[in-house]
Request: fold
Amino acid sequence: MKANKDIKTLAEFKDEHYGKVGSPKRDKLDKEFEVFKLGVLIQEARLEKGLTQEQLAQKCGTNKAYISKVENNRPLRQLNYPPTSVISRHEKSYFT
Reply:
């Protein structure tokens, strides 16, 4: 199979379009991606445990709207506190 010279790795693509690691634009991209992943992981764990957003919110001491914002990747500026606080409140119990 002949290699296509136009194909780039994800790292090469990000370097070209967002700058090298450590540049402000690249750091912003990487941070936003981590927040997105965290929201997905929270949603997957919640669904695995059979909890509604309302039930998870009660266990975490927040409200359904906040859980929805985290799971749907709302910008951090719209959140009163970071989504890691949802995990840290119940990391030992894993939503039990």
